[in-house]
Amino acid sequence: MIIVNTSEIHGREITESLGYVKGNTIRAKHVGKDLMAGLKQIVGGELKGYTEMLTEAREDAMARMIEDAKSMGADAIVNVRFSTSAIMQGAAEILVYGTAVKLR
Q1: pTM for the whole thing?
Q2: Rounded CA gap, 46 and 12, in Å?
Q3: For the chain, what is the domain count?
């Protein structure tokens, strides 16, 4: 599956647009991560626990979007975008979306 954030794929011809595809996941903070994050705010530095959590969330959302596109018979997904939003205190949604297409 080819996935790009552009409207075209260099060297390939889009023959059909199959429609909107998306994948999402909602993740909540872990109390232990919150404690470590609070300590990190004092001394500074990367919040590695949160970095890992968000990386996993993006990967899960991408996998769900790819499955959505495969179920439509797509060869690629173009115009891919990510969005993040707070759902409630301590929980956020990662959404990835794009357009499923057929290629020649």
Answers
A1: 0.83
A2: 40
A3: 1
